[in-house]
Amino acid sequence: MTRTPDQLIDFDALLTEEERMIRDTVRGFCDERLRPHVADWFEAHDIPDDLGPAFGEIGVLGMHLEGYGCAGTSAVAYGLACLELEAVDSGLRSFVSVQGSLAMYAIHRWGSEEQRNHWLPEMAAGRAIGCFGLTEPDFGSNPAGMRTTARRDGGDWVLDGAKTWITNGSRADVAVVWARVDEGYAGFLVERGTPGFTTHDIGRKMSLRASITSELVLEGVRVPDSARLPGATSLRGPLSCLNEARFGITFGALGAARDCIEQTLDYVAAREVFDKPLAAYQLTQAKLADMVLELDKGLLLALQLGRMKDAGRLPHQAISLGKLNSTREALAIARTCRTLLGASGITTEYSPIRHANNLESVLTYEGTAEMHQLIIGQELTGEAAFR
């Protein structure tokens, strides 16, 4: 009997040898270094300080970027790495995604050569951690409304404002902070310890507990002009970074779904109800069939988007298609798997309830499901329905 959720579509046959090798390397690292501990990290609402260097050792931080100590892999290989990381926990994939696709990508794409040389090799190795300060307490889906400002004062800039829901915030050595300026919008590199710059962790989360989420507060924070990202002069700067992160989520959320299905397959084969395995019941098999169908469709969509990205022809509307589908279907799969696990499904001994809690956040961040529906709708109709 087929027990691998993607075996029916022979997914491995669609990958190159290098892509499979990278995928297997990340999977082995996850099984050895992350999976045995992730339930405890989730319970403790914390992650180890040495995760950055550990991720740096296997080359997943900024792995899809070229030069400066980055691996320069294909987009598909990066997506597969995200899938394996999120199969362990969305919070761990978020750590890698924020580091590489948001903070490092912002510096790589919009920074100066001096900024790239200073930060990217250290960040690729995990010796320096970054975060990405865009979302504000009153402005999430509408970043154009941000209230954080930066004003010129001689040769410096002075930043005032607050950012919230910032992954890696209190662990970051450098924050990429986006602010309003007279000319529009700009990004700044704010280092830990800069006077007036403080962070506060957000507690009592029921989701992404194996992840650090913080508020950034900037009160008269003075940085030199050399800390400004010279290439970013509009919202195109941060939005381009979000597209990079959304692409990784398209693959990543499917990893959480796959892990839920794999654990559920093992459970229903062993669990006996009325003197026969739970797997032998029609309703069980119907649920499993529907979940594998959605997972496999999502994998094929994600792979196609990855091939388009590697070919340099992936529009941001297609990324919205992938992010919306993967997160929505993964969350539905996690919830359904929980039902098949019965009472066992509400403990962290099994992963579906943890994945379901995490995916509630993944459905929302980097663009809510509703915003992605409107992005796709605008592309289909030519009408903007955001307001």
From TrEMBL:
Cross-referenced InterPro entries, in alphabetical order?
A: Acyl-CoA_Oxase/DH_mid-dom, Acyl-CoA_Oxase/DH_mid-dom_sf, AcylCo_DH-like_C, AcylCo_DH/oxidase_C, AcylCoA_DH/ox_N, AcylCoA_DH/ox_N_sf, AcylCoA_DH/oxidase_NM_dom_sf, Glutaryl-CoA_DH_mitochondrial
Stretches assigned to the Acyl-CoA oxidase/dehydrogenase middle domain:
131-221
Task: Cite the GO molecular-function annotations of the record.
Answer: fatty-acyl-CoA binding; flavin adenine dinucleotide binding; glutaryl-CoA dehydrogenase activity
Name what cofactor the protein needs. FAD
- What are the Acyl-CoA dehydrogenase/oxidase N-terminal domain coordinates in residue numbering? 16-126
GO biological process: one example = fatty acid beta-oxidation using acyl-CoA dehydrogenase
Q: Which SUPFAM superfamilies match?
A: Acyl-CoA dehydrogenase C-terminal domain-like (SSF47203), Acyl-CoA dehydrogenase NM domain-like (SSF56645)
Query: Which Pfam families does the UniProt record give?
Result: Acyl-CoA_dh_1 (PF00441), Acyl-CoA_dh_M (PF02770), Acyl-CoA_dh_N (PF02771)
All residue ranges annotated as the Acyl-CoA dehydrogenase/oxidase C-terminal domain in the record: 240-380
Instruction: Give the source's domain of life in one word.
Output: Bacteria
Sorted keywords for this record are: FAD, Flavoprotein, Oxidoreductase, Transit peptide
| Entry similarity comment | Belongs to the acyl-CoA dehydrogenase family.
PANTHER family xref list: GLUTARYL-COA DEHYDROGENASE, MITOCHONDRIAL
Q: What is this protein called?
A: Acyl-CoA dehydrogenase
> Native species of this protein?
Corynebacterium sphenisci DSM 44792
